[in-house]
Design a protein that fits this description.
This protein is mainly alpha-helical. It is 57% helix and 8% strand. The protein has a 3-stranded parallel beta sheet, with helices on both faces. Helix 3 crosses helix 6. The longest helix is centred in the C-terminal third of the chain and has 16 residues. It starts with 5 loop residues before the first helix and ends with a helix.
Length: 120
């Protein structure tokens, strides 16, 4: 699949789901979820596992959380988004606004700031 098609698929979804597992330490604590950033940029509601690796990026203002490795919790969270269009719109908008801080330009500024602080 060509990469330029991915945003089209993401924006056509009613809800985007990120069911990371909490069973593996690397997934639960250390994964940098690039897919989550793509989801945030799509302006679609997100349901994700409530794991520290995800919570480092989003809060309940940008995402609906489900218990990791629990299909019933995910089902309930997805239903919550589908049943509440105002909630879906609010978290989508908040995620889209927040994802800007993770842009490559902002990442470069942060890295340069750290470097400059250490070299002075």
């Amino acid at each position: 699949m060509e990469r330029h098609i991915i945003p089209i698929y993401l924006q056509s979804a009613d809800v985007l789901v990120l069911p990371n597992s909490g069973k593996e330490k690397i997934s639960a604590r250390y994964t940098s979820p690039l897919k989550l950033l793509e989801y945030m940029a799509s302006n679609r509601p997100i349901v994700a596992s409530k794991l520290s690796s995800i919570l480092e990026v989003v809060s309940d203002r940008e995402c609906i959380f489900a218990e990791a490795d629990n299909p019933i919790s995910f089902s309930s969270s997805i239903r919550k988004v589908l049943d509440d269009s105002v909630l879906a719109k609010d978290i989508s908008k908040n995620a889209l606004n927040k994802v800007e801080q993770f842009s490559w330009g902002n990442r470069v500024k942060n890295i340069l700031s750290i470097i400059n602080n250490h070299t002075q």
